[in-house]
Every structure is written in C-alpha cells, then in structure tokens.
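User: Can you write out an input/output pair for a complex, sequences first and structure second?

Assistant: Here is one pair. Inputs:
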Amino acid sequence: MRVHLHPQHRTVEVTGRRRVGQLLAELGILPGTAMVIRGELLLTEGEVLEEGDEVEIRAVISGGAV
Amino acid sequence: MKCTRCRVKAEVELRSHNAGFCRPCYLFYFRRQVERAIASEHMFTHEERLLVAVSGGKDSLALWDVLAESGYRTTGLYLGLGIGTYSDRSHEKALKFAEQRGLELRVVSLQEEGPGLAIPDVAAATRRVPCSACGTMKRHYFDTAALAGDFDVLVTGHNLDDEAARLMGNVLHWQRDHLARQRPVLLPTHPKFVRKVKPLYLLSEYETAIYAFMRGIDYIVEECPNAAGATQLLYKDVLNRLEHASPGTKLSFVREFLRSAQPAFAVTANEEPQECASCGMPAYGTLCSFCRLVREVEARRSPSRAAAPA
C-alpha cells in the first residue's frame, strides 16, 4: 500500500495487510499525533488496511511560541 | 469500534475520554465541548463582539468555524508575520476560509507596519529566538487591534497541547508570574486591554484537527519553519509519550493545575500595568515589551538614530 506522510511530503510503500495501529508503530508515529485518512474517511487504530490501499498520515502537531 | 453515543461504526477513537465517535456525533461532541468551556468559564456572550486571532492553521480556523456556526459575533484577525511562503500560504487559507463563509477578516502585515518588523528580520537583528519575538509581536498587534476595533473579547485558538506544554515549561522553570497568568480567561488589567479567552483549552490538537478535517476546512498543514527545534515542540513530544502510556495525562495535568494549583499562584500576580511612554499601550516598565523590541531592531539597523532621545 502507498502511505503519504504530511507535512513531510513523503510517500512510503508498505507491503502486506495490517491494522492502522501496527502501521503507525512501524513508522514510529504515536497514535493521537496524526490522523490516518483513507479517501474521505478517518481510520481508527483497529481498522485493517489492505494491500492496495492508499492512505494519508497527517500530523496534527503545531507550535513554536509558548 | 462503535460510536459511544449512537453505536454505529466509529470513525474516531479518543483514548483520553475512553470513547469513540461517528462523524455526526463527533461534531456534536466537539461543539458541545467548546460551548461548555465558554459557559463554565464565562468567556463571552452572544451579544459581545469577538476578535478571533486566526493563523490559517487548524486550531484557529476550527474555533472560528464553531463560533460562527453558533451565532457569535465574530471578526477574524490575521497577522502577517512575513515568514516567506509560509506566511503567504497561511494568509491564503485564512482569506479563503473567511470568503467562503462571508465572514469579516482584518489583516495586519508586519512588513507594512515598519521596516525590519517581519519576524525573521526581528529575530536576526535582536538575536532572539524567532518564537520569542513572534510572541511579543502577536500580543502587541492583537491588543492594539482589539482596542482600535472596540472589541469586547480577544479569542485565540490555544489548545490543550499548547496549554500542557506551556504549563510544563512554566513548572520546569518555576515561572511563578507566568503560572499566575496561565488561565483560559484573562480579565483585563488595564482599560486598554480586552478580555482574552481560549475556548479550546481542554481540546487536544488531535481533536481540533479531526474537527477541521470533518468540516472540510482547508488549513495549513505545514509547520512554521521557525518552529523547528522550538522548546514547545520538545515539551509536546514528551507529553505525547506520557499520554500514550497513560491516556488522559494531558487533560488531568492542565485541568488539575487550574483547579488545585493555579489559584495559589494567582495571588502573587504583578501589580497593574502603567502606559508605555512610546505607544501608550499597557506596560510594566517605561516601555512595553513591543516597543523595547522595536527599539532594539532600530538600534541594529541605525545605531545613531536609536541612541537619540525619544
């Protein structure tokens, strides 16, 4: 499957069926710090991703000035 | 996973609340959380005029969306920081959001306010951390815009993660005066100040991002280029690791601080401010922090002029 990472503007190819939570762990992304989007829908950690899926992982952290 | 409210398939899981939501229920939940914060902290009423500081990011646009949808009298304020294409794109997002909804957006551009006032120029001239200069500039222009526009309240999109990171920094350095002012509502300490409120203070940035996504809000996803290496991001990372190990940590950290500890610091707050000798805005010395910063920039740009008496 193709995984688009934003805002890094990077795409990675991942082979094999797996749950969203597992994909995040493999990419070193903590749940709650990024949205996982397939098409027009958000996915929870328990959702299963199939081989041909295309998903976006969009980080939600912003900041600078305290 | 099923929606906690209506039992259909959930699209969102919130571990901190031990809950899941489908899209309609999530939007209901989010709006209700904002309304509860506004009501419980007596932030503002439907009759008051609100100036909403918008950056083009998810938090401020999500907040403006909720407030406008709820019938509050809002005007947006976008401050152009002059941070290259990042500021250009942020401006576009804020403008597009306002135009699509028929909302008024006021724009102040630092580059047009004076030479050398864009954040990268100020940071370079004063050798300050960009985020520090940015904070000083924002506070001044937000205050002056609220005063000039005769607004009742200044509303910002600070979220739970912002507040938790700020609290961590204030506690690590025991910044008693900062802890005294860390509240979701800051009442004016001078006639030239307006009430400042943070309706998203108990909603995480994950929650605001989800709301923005579900509402189709086109916000700037990119991080401010100056934020790389910022201390606040380090604190957020630490807090997110704690949150992962123990969901709800950020919420209880901020909520319990406000409930149990903050009142003790509030009694140590500084005296009321005087007026700045240069711009007339409230100041805790002869000059306000903005004018001190501008003097510093001028001194770097033209040492002889800055040395002359005011």
